[in-house]
Design brief:
CATH topology of the largest domain: Uridine Diphospho-n-acetylenolpyruvylglucosamine Reductase, domain 3
CATH class of the largest domain: Alpha Beta
Oligomer: single chain
Radius of gyration: 19 Å
CATH architecture of the largest domain: 2-Layer Sandwich
Strand order of the largest sheet: 6-7-15-11-12
Distance between the termini: 33 Å
Strand content: 25-35%
Length: 286
Amino acid sequence: MKINSVNLSKVTTYRFGGLCKNYIELENTNDFLKISGKVNSKNTFVLGKGSNIAFSDNEYKGYVLKPKFEFINNTNDVGILKVGAGTYLPDLSRYLKNRELGGGEFLLGIPGSLGGALKMNAGSFGYEIATNVVEINCYDLNERKFISLDKNSIKYSYRHSENLDNKIIHSAILKFEHADPKSIAQKMSKFNKQRKKSQPPGIYNAGSVFKNSDDYFAGELIDNAGLKGYSIDNVSVSTKHANFFIAKKGAKASSLYDLVQYVKEKVYDKYKVSLEEEIQFIGEFT
C-alpha cells in the first residue's frame, strides 16, 4: 500500500482537481484490512482511470483510493475470466480478441478501468458490461469485510448499479462467448470508425457528460438548443458532438460545473427535459 500527496489534476482525463493528501494505492487484498479503520463510505472516493470524473479545484479532504488490481486470469471454463478492477478496458478488449472471444468489442474505445465500468454499467453502441457479469468480488466499506455479489443481486440498469455503492471492487468473473475472429475484428473496426467520426479526439474531456434515455439523445437536445460551441472560460460544448464538453489546458473544474448547469437549464427551458449527468463531480462546487 502506498500513501501519497497527489494533485488530482494528474490522475483524471479532464486534468481538473486540487490536492489530495491521502491518495492511497491498493496493491493487494491485505491493503483493505490496513485501511478499514480509516476509510468509510462518507470520506472516500474510489478512482479508476479518471474518466467521467471532475474533482473540485479545491483540496479534497477525504481519501482517494486507487485499486491497482490489473490482471486477466483464465478459469477452467472456456470464456469465463477473472479480471482485476484496475484492468484497462481497451486491454481487456484486445485480450478477448486474441483469444477469439466475442462480446467485448465495445470496450475498445472506453478509456476506463473495469471497476468503474462495473459500477456505472459502462457501455456503447447498444452494448453494456452488465451483460458479461457473472459475479463481482468487493470489499464492503460499511461492513468492513469481503463479499461476492452475483449479477442478479447487483440490479443493473442503464449506466447504473444499485448495490455497488460503498464498495471497493477487487475483481469480477466475466463471461464471453467464442466468436469468429473476422467478426470480432470487423466489429472493433466499425466501432472505432464510429467513434472517430463523432467524438472529439486528442483533447481534455471525460466522455459523455449526460446520460441518454429511451426518449432522447442528450447530444441532440443540446445541439438543437443551439449550444454547440458555447463556452464558459476555457471549457466548451464540443462542436463535433454536443454531449462532449472539452477543456483547454489550465481550465478549472468550476467552469465545467457552471457550463453543465447552464446547459441543463437551457435544455429544460426549451424541452422540459431534465438532463441527468453521467459525469461525477467530486468535492465542493457550490
